[in-house]
Amino acid sequence: MRSTYFGLFLACLCLSTAQVTKSSESPDEQAIRDEDAAWLKAVHANDIDRIVSFYADDACEFPIEEPIACGKKAIRANWAHMLGIPGLRLTWQLTKVEVSHEPSASCERL
What is the distance between the alpha carbons of residues 83 and 88, in angstroms, rounded to a whole number? Predict the structure, then answer.
């Protein structure tokens, strides 16, 4: 069961391996880092209400080998299940944040 959720978090963690120095961060980049740290703190505290607050109302999670969880009710159930796994300890470290101030060509098509 642990491997089911490992892929979800691995995907989040594999955004980048480059380290960003604090001096080069914009306020937007720092805000993203702060929110990520708050999310991890909520996970470590098993605070499901706080964890779910980081998701949009229409968000979906894609856990491996589990049904897609769409909407806060389903995401809450998914987190409750995951946090109930004995001995499971989740952690991550955000290593790179890039904020685009101009839409990319692929975003303009959306």
Answer: 7
